[in-house]
Design brief:
The protein contains 11 helices and 8 strands. With 322 residues, it is of the alpha/beta class. It has a single domain, classed as NAD(P)-binding Rossmann-like Domain (Rossmann fold, 3-Layer(aba) Sandwich). The protein has an 8-stranded mixed sheet, with helices on both faces. Helix 4 runs parallel beside helix 5 and helix 5 packs parallel to helix 7. The longest helix is centred in the middle third of the chain and has 23 residues.
C-alpha cells in the first residue's frame, strides 16, 4: 500500500511559511497565470526561496507590475516576465521555444493559470475554451518543455486542479460540447479532472527521467477566477455571507498558494508523483459528510489518464515523447 504523504502545514499555512526553510538558489521556476491571484503569491514564495522565476502571463503590463512587486518584497532580481496565452497553441509553442532557446534547465513548472465557469467559447483551434485553456494549453506547454525539465531533473511539475473536478469526469465522446448542451460548470469540472489526470500520466511517463508531477487543489480563494460569476451566482453557491463577504473557510491568496509551493519544493514529495494534494497534504478519497475536501476516483484513474494523453496528442496534432 502506498503511504500517504502529509506535512506539518495545513489549511491556514501560507506559501511563505512553506518555503521558510527551503533553499532553491540556482533553480529555475516557471509559473503560469502569475499576474494575479495565487499565481502572484506562488511566484513570490519561490523567489523568496532563491529560485529564478519566470512569470508566464497573458497581460504583459500586469505581469511587469507583479514582477516589480515581487523583486521589491523578496530582494530578488531573478524575476522576469514572458508572454503566454494558454488559449492559443501558437503562443504556447512560441513561449516554449523561447525557453528552450536559452538552454537553461527548468526545475519547477507550475501550471497555475486557469479560467472558470465562463460562457461557451472556443479557442482559435476550435476547442471548448475551458478545456482548451486549462488542460490542452498546459499539456502542450509541459510536453514541449520536456527537454528542459529532464535537464533540470529531479524536477517538479504542479498541475492546478480543483475540488471542482468532482463535477464531471472527462467525457471523451464529446469533450468540446459539440453534441451536448453546454454547461459551464460541467465544462469547468471536466477541465479540472483533465488537469489531475495529466499529472497522473506525466508522473508515470516521466518517473524514469526524474520528473515528479502532482495535482493540487488550492482551496477556495476569492480571486479573478470568479470574474464570470455574479453576486447571485456566488450567493447560490453559498460562498458569501449575508453581508456579501466570503464565508469562513475561504483562503487568502497567500494561503491558496501554499499547496502549490509545497508540491514544488517539499523534500517529502521527492519522486512521489501522480497524487492529488490539498492543504499541504496528500488528499484522501471523497467521504460522506465532507463536502469541501477529497478527490473523486475518476480524477486519478490510470486508464483514463492514459486515454486522455492519447486524445490530447490527437487534438494538438503532436505525438509527445516524455
Amino acid at each position: 500500500m502506498v503511504e500517504r504523504v502529509t506535512s506539518r502545514f495545513g489549511h491556514g499555512s501560507t506559501a511563505m511559511e512553506v518555503v521558510a526553510s527551503i533553499d532553491r538558489h540556482g533553480k529555475n521556476a516557471i509559473v503560469t497565470g502569475a499576474a494575479s491571484g495565487i499565481g502572484v503569491e506562488t511566484a513570490r514564495a519561490l523567489a523568496a526561496a532563491g529560485a529564478a522565476v519566470t512569470l508566464a502571463v497573458r497581460n504583459r503590463e500586469k505581469g511587469e507590475a507583479v514582477a516589480r512587486d515581487v523583486r521589491a518584497t523578496t530582494r530578488s532580481d531573478a524575476v522576469r516576465v514572458e508572454d503566454l496565452d494558454l488559449g492559443e497553441l501558437g503562443s504556447v509553442r512560441r513561449f516554449a521555444d523561447r525557453v528552450l532557446a536559452t538552454g537553461a534547465p527548468v526545475h519547477i513548472l507550475i501550471n497555475n493559470a486557469g479560467i472558470m465557469a465562463c460562457p461557451l467559447g472556443r479557442t482559435p483551434e476550435g476547442f471548448e475554451l475551458q478545456f482548451g485553456t486549462n488542460h490542452l494549453g498546459h499539456f502542450l506547454l509541459a510536453c514541449r518543455l520536456a527537454p528542459a525539465l529532464k535537464a533540470g531533473a529531479p524536477c517538479r511539475v504542479v498541475a492546478l486542479s480543483s475540488i471542482g473536478h468532482r463535477l464531471s469526469p472527462v467525457h471523451f465522446d464529446d469533450v468540446h460540447f459539440e453534441r451536448r448542451p453546454y454547461d459551464r460548470w460541467l465544462a469547468y469540472g471536466q477541465s479540472k479532472t483533465a488537469n489531475a489526470l495529466f499529472a497522473v500520466e506525466l508522473a508515470r511517463r516521466g518517473a524514469a527521467a526524474g520528473i515528479t508531477a502532482n495535482a493540487v487543489h488550492p482551496g477556495g480563494i476569492m480571486t479573478g477566477l470568479q470574474q464570470h460569476l455574479s453576486r447571485e451566482d456566488m450567493d447560490a453557491l453559498g460562498w458569501l455571507d449575508p453581508d456579501g463577504k466570503p464565508r469562513t473557510g475561504f483562503k487568502t491568496p497567500a494561503q491558496g498558494a501554499a499547496t502549490s509551493v509545497w508540491a514544488a519544493t517539499a523534500p517529502e514529495l521527492e519522486g512521489k508523483g501522480g497524487r492529488y494534494l490539498e492543504d499541504c497534504q496528500e488528499g484522501e478519497p471523497v467521504r460522506p459528510g465532507v463536502p469541501f475536501a477529497g478527490y473523486h476516483p475518476h480524477a486519478l484513474d490510470a486508464e483514463s489518464a492514459k486515454r486522455l494523453w492519447t486524445v490530447s496528442e490527437q487534438m494538438i496534432g503532436e505525438t509527445i515523447a516524455v
